[in-house]
Design brief:
The structure is a homodimer.
Chain A (H helix, E strand, L loop, with lengths): L1 E2 L2 H10 L3 E4 L6 H16 L4 E4 L9 H4 L11 E5 L20 E4 L10 E4 L6 H12 L5 H14 L10 H12 L4 H9 L4 H12 L2 E3 L4 E6 L1 H7 L3 H4 L14 E7 L4 E8 L5 H6 L4 E2 L3 E7 L2 H19 L4
Parallel strand pairs in A: 1-6, 2-3, 2-4, 4-5, 5-6, 8-9
Antiparallel strand pairs in A: 7-8, 9-10, 10-12, 11-12
């Protein structure tokens, strides 16, 4: 992948029309915020632009997605935002995996799958980069675009709680508020609003909490049975993986999320000392230092034992005991 | 109270020495952040300065309080920060209630109890004002001062989730991070760290949740029995009052916090539509539009009925039904 400057990125986008902006599968707030924010800005410059994702976007992002009317066109320029590797372009739209023209991302683990791109691992959210690109394209940021960008920033920094949050993160957030973003509302909707089903599924998951290594590691399970009992949707369970790390003294929080029979999605969260992307890489996964994931096959007990043993080792390593 | 400009506030502080900075009783993050941040800056200018509070400061603020060694002096200038009325200067230090020289505050309900003062109700946190005062005094902000100011900003805006959060809030937060504040750490400690006792007391309180008015009002109780069972300290129960408002559809969240027998401290939180300071004023209390409190005497059932009836009326008013 040829690495471009921000100005070149802006120039490439201005040179093209009929632009398709791809999100990663299981889209989160940063994916949605980047894709919709960029498309809104591109349309303001008179271009056709549409976001595309293999999975449905949660209805809680409706205040963003409802602001971009459908457009139908033959894509001429394929852009990815917040996508670290081609396989994260989901199954439903996998025809685009090999023909991405431009990649804009903030994952240090980016595989360079596109023709050209820009990767800034110092940006807490990819939306911070998108804000700079929009500015360099000379497009105005209206309140809808500002809401989209703000959502990406706030969600990918865990409401400014992750260690990826910089003064630049706050300054772009401030700019977005001046452009009309309703930051307090967005933060409340994303982080402080629980459905009753969420309350219930959280209660069930928290009951499974087990501590290891003198309370430095906490593990919870989220099973299909719990989802059934609480009637929780995919959206209702978002962010549950941050709960174990919240307990005082916990350095690594792990969530075992049952996918299929004997197949668990592991989410690991760290307070900063332990690099959980390395932990997850041992099982073929990846992510950031403070938040990473992987898939492990086995029964709940087997999987819990495997990931816990690896986490105990990882904690030992940072304590210098190994 | 004679209203001063920010420059006059800075000048007054520079003119004096042996300055005592008072916090309100039951000090929160903004009280602690303002008092310690201001004292650190005053000492940097060569002055004697000490914060004082009638109540103990929670140990979670240790990263702030440990940075200011004790000083002993005869106070010559009495300053209050984040204090809206003289009675909020607690019993233990009530001798200062009638002799406050300078009041720096952000409560619109400030009673003007001091000789001179500055009140800016547009500041989400009083610490935003303190940051401006420090700048105008020409004192450098080191990382300890920055941590204190950041703590005030972050805690009083509920981690940037309350409607009092402005772009200025974010910009001052950004400045504090550039000065060395560890914002992500502070936000995690203040909002994302739970002791096991907190987990337990939260579970007990959430079990009492009752909904009124089609789910627009949610009420929880926090009793002395719950504190006993969970072994929760004062610090463990902080912020519990924000839980009922977090449920989807809730416009007013109310927490009944048992103080003495037949005496309840009511905390009311609003998503922004209902002005809960008016609601609490009906019972002799006050606060901000989005967060207010009052004391009501009676049994739990009586108190719940009184405050709920008033809240139902308040919701009707904003719906235009009255």
């Amino acid at each position: 992948m040829k690495i471009l400057t921000l100005n070149e990125i802006a120039a490439r986008l201005k040179e093209h029309d009929n632009i398709l902006v791809l999100m990663h599968k299981s889209p989160d707030g940063d994916a949605v915020g980047c894709a919709y924010g960029l498309c809104l800005a591109l349309r303001q410059l008179g271009k056709n632009a549409m976001p595309l994702c293999s999975d449905a976007i949660d209805k809680k992002y409706g205040y963003i997605t409802s602001k971009l009317p459908e457009q139908h066109f033959e894509p001429q320029y394929i852009v990815t935002v917040d996508i670290a590797a081609a396989h994260l372009i989901g199954e439903e739209i996998k025809q685009y995996r090999e023909c991405v023209d431009l990649c804009i991302d903030h994952h240090g683990s980016n595989t360079g799958f596109a023709k050209e791109g820009y990767v800034d691992a110092d940006s807490g959210a990819c939306a911070e980069i998108i804000a700079k690109v929009i500015e360099r394209m000379g497009a105005d940021i209206d309140s809808d675009t500002a809401n989209a960008i703000f959502t990406g920033i706030s969600t990918d920094t865990g409401c400014f709680k992750y260690s990826n949050t910089t003064s630049n993160t706050y300054r772009i957030a401030a700019d977005m508020i001046d452009k009309g973003a309703d930051g307090a509302y967005i933060n409340r909707i994303m982080f402080d609003t629980k459905s009753r089903a969420r309350l219930e599924v959280e209660r069930l998951a928290l009951e499974t909490m087990t501590f290891f290594d003198d309370g430095k590691i906490a593990v919870i399970c989220l099973t299909n049975k719990m989802r059934e009992l609480s009637k929780a949707t995919e959206g209702d369970t978002e962010g549950i993986s941050s709960l174990p790390r919240q307990i005082e003294g916990v350095k690594v929080g792990i969530t075992l999320n049952e996918k299929d029979e004997n197949q668990f999605k592991i989410s690991a969260r760290s307070t900063g000392d332990v690099d959980v992307s390395k932990l997850c890489a041992r099982f073929g996964g990846g992510g950031h230092k403070g938040a990473a994931g992987c898939l492990i096959a086995g029964t709940l007990e087997e999987v819990r034992e495997k990931i816990t043993a690896a986490a105990i080792e990882a904690v030992k390593e940072i304590s210098g005991e190994v």
